[in-house]
Amino acid sequence: MPQVALVTGGNRGIGLGITHALLDEGYAVAILATRPEPEELLAELRERGEVLYVQGSVAEPESHERYVNAALERWGRIDLLVNNAGVAPSVRADILEAEPESFDRVLGINLRGPYFLTQRVANAMLAGRDERGQTDGVVGTIINVSSVSATFVSTNRGEYCISKAGVGMATQLFAARLAPEGIVVYEVRPGVIATDMTAGVKEKYDAQFADGLAPMPRWGTPPDVAGAVVQLSAGKMPYSTGEIINVDGGMHIPRL
């Protein structure tokens, strides 16, 4: 029986990179995504390993229930949750002009949804531990994919920054609560990653990289982020939890 990973938004962008990497590591992967089943993509993924696709939104608790139950019915266990799904504001608006509807949408998908999905998955992991009679060792791993926007200010997308800062605190909360139970929790903070989400601001960031935005003068890629997820999920750091791994080419380093 393979180890089982849940990857929200695992059908595109960073999430797809994570799905590829975990399949290559021998995981079975359950994807939660809002789009209808992408038949060609799923056929390609299933050549690499076992894949389950559940259509739903991370913002909806009903989707959480269907998603977790589907994985448990298929494989009987959950070893890893990667909270990756997220959105940017539909319109980048100055914080003096931003609309409540945009705030609610972004916070619902980026923060509220992963918070309660983590709750449900953690309880499922603990139930599996109890069924196995496991008393020590790592029971499960939870990885939150956040953003450098957890600490970097963008006043034209404040709701996004607040959502990612909230993910940082949620990581610490769940890490502290779940450590005694044998579940480790980490946060991965990508920088500027080349995906469809950032395609519309390519010229802006091309210029910023040329001007020294990060010590590593290039865009990040989904495999860059996936590599961090694979390392954290490997169980090689059983005495570490609540850690933040920056995948940003060094953007987070204060420089003069």
Describe the secondary structure blueprint for this structure.
Elements: E1 4-8, H1 13-24, E2 28-33, H2 39-46, E3 51-55, H3 61-75, E4 80-83, H4 100-132, E5 140-145, H5 158-178, E6 183-190, H6 202-210, H7 222-233, E7 244-247
Parallel strand pairs: 1-2, 1-4, 2-3, 4-5, 5-6, 6-7
Helix pairs in contact: 1-7, 3-4, 4-5
Give a verbal description of the structure:
This protein is of the alpha/beta class and 256 residues long. The chain has one domain: 3-Layer(aba) Sandwich (Rossmann fold). The chain has helices at residues 13-24, 39-46, 61-75, 100-132, 158-178, 202-210, 222-233, and strands at 4-8, 28-33, 51-55, 80-83, 140-145, 183-190, 244-247. Strands 3-2-1-4-5-6-7 form a 7-stranded parallel beta sheet, sandwiched between helices. Helix 4 links the parallel strand 4 (80-83) and strand 5. Helix 3 (61-75) runs parallel beside helix 4 and helix 4 (100-132) runs parallel beside helix 5.
